[in-house]
């Protein structure tokens, strides 16, 4: 059975049950790859906990937590080939770190430092989009461009992440519609975490699933257990493969709905206890992707107490180093504000930059900085 | 074109034909350039701005898209980020608003957001303005929206020659350009347009008529009534200089100020509503840069602050030569 077809047992693709028991075909990964996937999930979780804590201590600005979504983020990003592209929303720090984005840069970005936005040249990652669903047509356009440049063929796929709330936006529909019409090598990955800030999934749509929306655009949609990293990995791998090498009469795009839960707030600026019940959170926490994968790996003899402890220690060190690096980075030179508006400064921007330089010179930076 | 066959160097084109000529010229020179939008392909565009391009360059470079402005602009953003040079068309500027988020949130600021790793060499074309007896939402003149947005260049030509040269410059520009075409004068007259490629620089105004008594600053479709008014007033002994801005962002402040210092009076003419329009920006620039040269208050001759009326009333809404002449006289006789 194709992993892109829903498992008749519960309507969605699953490899591991909530206890880490095997209920589907285990993807063909080496022991090292399994451990790397596990480590990335642990890293994403610990990073997230520390980021929330930094925000609470006033050391970082508003931050969107990802805890609960590590299985979907890491499992899907692990499926990407080196040349594939990742087009994130604003919550994919876990997926981004799999693609080689330095943790320090992610911290800088949420600390309000523009330099955190500069993605390394060797990482095929697009800049995060904050307006909801607006990155969906970008992903379609990027994939479309690649296909046009290669005479209608492509050896790359483009995965685009967004949440359940995004499926209500016009840009979601326009992006998927263009993808179907122009048959672009795009994988649309919906992190259905059940809540768009305080509005539940049931208030986004009367559709039975989000995956079924793909039918309207002429391509395949699949619902996958987003708390099961191996199921996510399998479904994404197949979708990426189809994007590059579609079968006879098959369209390249796929919509994946990864059913999952965000354990924390939408961002550190909101309080989820206002809109959802503790029982619901507890129920979903029992599906936590990390212990689930850990149990499986222990059962396979791939992980033991020692190895887990070593990983936890190295993850703590890595995050601590990234925080040190971010916090010890000297403030950005504010004059760079004028540098990235156009390839060449317009006369007026040049004038404004000069006036700004004069004001700093005359009054000193203390006159501008609120501490 | 056939009328000019004895002269190989130029063609006698309307403004909309020069749009087409610019697209064909640049598509021929650069395989990365492509045109996309509603009805731009087989139909050749509702104003025929892309006529024949589909047959010449094929369906992958002249793309009929689904009817979706955000989809058109948003996918063009993705294409441009990957190195293509898309030229999306919005059929009428009054229909650009479903794509407005893509324009201001992404097209304008991807370079900034990515610290220049990505830039968008794209040109968003849209016919704008009134005076053609069109239905509701087909006549707006909202260039100020785009001029207000940092990261966008906004170009509005007024002659066939400039249209071709400016559009070629816009396509070659590494940054995103909003190219607004005055549909009132798409076919109102012809002009000599060189064959082959040439550039008219973005950000440079041009003096259409030299004068010493007052400077008239205008652009796009309003250039013609402004020149007409200047000619009429010349008979009454008022010598008006007419400056066609050609680019409303970035504004050529230097030329504006220089002309004003010569004449000491100004009348700014645009069909867009007065409040928040470019005339305010130009007036403020003159205050900042040339207050002591000022002989009279700056007069603004603009559209009114009302929704663009249905066409039975549009002649009263649009500035014409009479209103421009009245504005010039007011400033001169102050």
UniProtKB/TrEMBL annotation, chain A:
Domain Dehydrogenase E1 component: residue ranges: 38-334
Q: Which GO terms describe its molecular function?
A: oxidoreductase activity
What Gene3D superfamilies does the record point to? 3.40.50.970
Supply the SUPFAM superfamilies for this chain. Answer: Thiamin diphosphate-binding fold (THDP-binding)
List UniProt keywords, sorted A-Z.
Answer: Oxidoreductase, Pyruvate
GO BP term, pick one: sulfur compound biosynthetic process
Q: Which InterPro entries match?
A: Alpha-ketoacid_DH_E1_comp, DH_E1, PdhA/BkdA, THDP-binding
Q: Which NCBIfam families match?
A: PDH_E1_alph_x
User: What is the recorded name of this protein?
Assistant: Pyruvate dehydrogenase (Acetyl-transferring) E1 component subunit alpha
- This protein's species is Halobaculum marinum
Q: What is the gene called?
A: pdhA
TrEMBL record, chain B:
**What biological-process terms (Gene Ontology) are attached?**
organic acid metabolic process; sulfur compound biosynthetic process
InterPro entries, A to Z: THDP-binding, Transketo_C/PFOR_II, Transketolase-like_Pyr-bd, Transketolase_C
Name the UniProt key words of this record, in alphabetical order.
Oxidoreductase, Thiamine pyrophosphate
The record's top EC class is oxidoreductase
Which positions fall inside the Transketolase-like pyrimidine-binding domain? 13-188
Q: Which cofactor does it need?
A: thiamine diphosphate
Entry's EC annotation: 1.2.4.-
Coiled coil stretches, renumbered: none
Q: Which GO terms describe its molecular function?
A: oxidoreductase activity
> Mind telling me what this protein is named?
Alpha-ketoacid dehydrogenase subunit beta
Please name the source species.
Halobaculum marinum
């Amino acid at each position: 059975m194709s992993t892109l077809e829903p498992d008749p047992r519960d309507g969605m693709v699953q490899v591991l049950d909530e206890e880490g028991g095997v209920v589907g075909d285990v993807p063909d990964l080496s022991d090292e790859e399994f451990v790397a996937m596990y480590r990335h999930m642990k890293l994403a979780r610990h990073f997230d906990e520390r980021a929330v804590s930094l925000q609470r201590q006033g050391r970082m600005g508003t931050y969107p937590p990802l805890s609960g979504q590590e299985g979907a983020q890491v499992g899907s990003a692990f499926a990407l080939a080196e040349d594939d592209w990742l087009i994130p929303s604003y919550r994919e720090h876990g997926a981004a770190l799999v693609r080689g984005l330095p943790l320090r840069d992610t911290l800088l970005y949420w600390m309000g430092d523009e330099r955190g936005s500069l993605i390394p040249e060797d990482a095929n990652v697009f800049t995060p989009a904050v307006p909801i669903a607006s990155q969906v047509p970008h992903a379609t356009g990027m994939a479309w461009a690649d296909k046009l440049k290669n005479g209608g063929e492509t050896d790359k796929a483009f995965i685009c992440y967004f949440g359940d709330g995004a499926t209500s936006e016009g840009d979601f529909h326009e992006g998927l519609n263009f993808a179907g019409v122009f048959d672009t090598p795009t994988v649309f990955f919906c992190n259905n975490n059940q809540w768009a800030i305080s509005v539940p999934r049931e208030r986004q749509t009367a559709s039975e699933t989000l995956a079924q929306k793909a039918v309207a655009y002429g391509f395949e949609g699949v619902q996958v257990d987003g708390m099961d990293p191996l199921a996510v990995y399998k479904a994404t791998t197949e979708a990426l493969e189809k994007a590059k090498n579609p079968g006879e009469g098959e369209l390249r795009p796929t919509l994946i709905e990864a059913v999952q839960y965000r354990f924390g707030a939408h961002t550190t600026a909101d309080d989820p206890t206002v809109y959802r019940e503790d029982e619901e959170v507890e129920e979903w926490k029992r599906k936590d992707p990390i212990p689930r994968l850990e149990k499986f790996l222990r059962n396979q003899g791939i992980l033991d107490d020692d190895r887990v402890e070593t990983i936890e220690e190295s993850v703590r060190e890595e995050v601590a180093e990234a925080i040190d690096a971010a916090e010890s980075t000297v403030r950005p030179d504010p004059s760079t504000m004028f540098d990235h508006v156009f390839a060449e400064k317009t006369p007026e921007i040049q004038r404004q930059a000069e006036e700004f330089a004069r004001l700093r010179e005359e009054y000193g930076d203390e006159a501008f900085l609120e501490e | 074109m056939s009328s000019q066959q004895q002269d190989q160097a130029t063609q006698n084109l309307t403004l909309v034909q020069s749009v087409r000529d610019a697209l064909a010229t640049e598509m021929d020179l650069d395989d990365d350039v492509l045109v996309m939008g509603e009805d731009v392909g087989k139909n050749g565009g509702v104003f025929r701005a892309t006529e024949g391009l589909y047959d010449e360059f094929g369906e992958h470079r002249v793309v009929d898209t689904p009817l979706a402005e955000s989809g058109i602009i948003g996918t063009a953003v993705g294409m441009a980020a990957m190195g293509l040079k898309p030229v999306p068309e919005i059929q009428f500027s009054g229909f650009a608003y479903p794509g407005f988020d893509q324009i201001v949130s992404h097209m304008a600021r991807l370079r900034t957001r990515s610290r220049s790793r990505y830039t968008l060499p794209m040109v968003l074309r849209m016919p704008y303005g009134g005076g053609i007896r069109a239905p509701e939402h087909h006549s707006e003149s909202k260039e100020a929206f785009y001029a207000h947005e940092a990261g966008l260049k906004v170009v509005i030509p007024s002659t066939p020659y400039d249209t071709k040269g400016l559009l070629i410059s816009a396509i070659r520009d590494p940054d995103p350009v909003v190219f607004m075409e005055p549909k009132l004068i798409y076919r109102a007259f012809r002009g000599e347009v060189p064959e082959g490629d040439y550039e008219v620089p973005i950000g440079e105004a041009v003096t259409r008529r030299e004068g010493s008594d007052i400077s008239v600053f205008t652009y796009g479709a309003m250039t013609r009534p402004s020149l007409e008014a200047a000619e009429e007033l010349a008979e009454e002994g008022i010598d008006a200089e007419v400056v066609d801005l050609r680019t409303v962002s970035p504004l050529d402040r230097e030329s504006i100020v220089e002309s004003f210092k010569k004449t000491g009076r100004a009348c700014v003419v645009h069909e867009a509503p007065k409040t928040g329009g470019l005339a305010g920006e130009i007036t403020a620039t003159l205050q900042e840069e040339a207050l002591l040269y000022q002989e009279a208050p700056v007069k603004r001759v603009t559209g009114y602050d009302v929704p663009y009326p249905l066409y039975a009333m549009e002649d009263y809404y649009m500035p014409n030569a009479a209103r421009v002449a009245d504005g010039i006289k007011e400033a001169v006789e102050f």
